[in-house]
Amino acid sequence: MIPRLPARTALLVFGLCCSRAAYAQDDGIPAWTGERPFAVEVGNAAGSAPLGWLNLSMDFALSRYLSLAAGMGYGDGARQVSAMARVRIPGGSTSVGAIVHDIGVGWSMGRRTHSLPAPCQAQGLFDDQCSSPGDKVWEPAQRIDAEYSVELPLVASALVLRFFGGVSTIINTGSYFCDYMIGHIPQCQGKYASDGNIFPYMGVGLSILPGAFTRNTVSLTFDE
Asked: Taking a C-beta distance cutoff of 8 angstroms, is the pair 167, 146 a contact?
């Protein structure tokens, strides 16, 4: 004889399954203000990027389509700091979450070194005083950054891979000094005075979304 089941039984709810169903019903962008109010990102980029070649930043949700990122990193032999606002645009979805395109504008500050062409080589002269390039050095450089990035979800949207690229423009253009060897011809003035003021960068970051992990739980309700 098959035993009779109680009127009310234990309920098993998988948060991960529920969260995936919710994603399929919205416009593809997670509700940051509820499910993931912030993300922590570890990034690697060219040394002239706003946060340097190795950095750590946090991305805070102001709304579903707008976030504010701020962080600190190391590049060009010194500390770099940055803040950026990003507009987030839906770009489709995968089995583990949404693909998102970001357009950002921000400010950054840190040391910037720009190497100049070897002195006198433009004139075809090669001698002891024309064999070493000089450098323009800002300590620090203040920059306006424009950036595009794409977010690719990993592991049920708890991890996100972000590829980014952009252009930085130095705004304190005259606040540099010439770094060159004694006896060589400095090239920081004249036709090289505007060199290095605008430069591209690119990199990749891995974001951890702490809020996403709270959905991947199993909850049980028992009857008395």
From this structure: yes
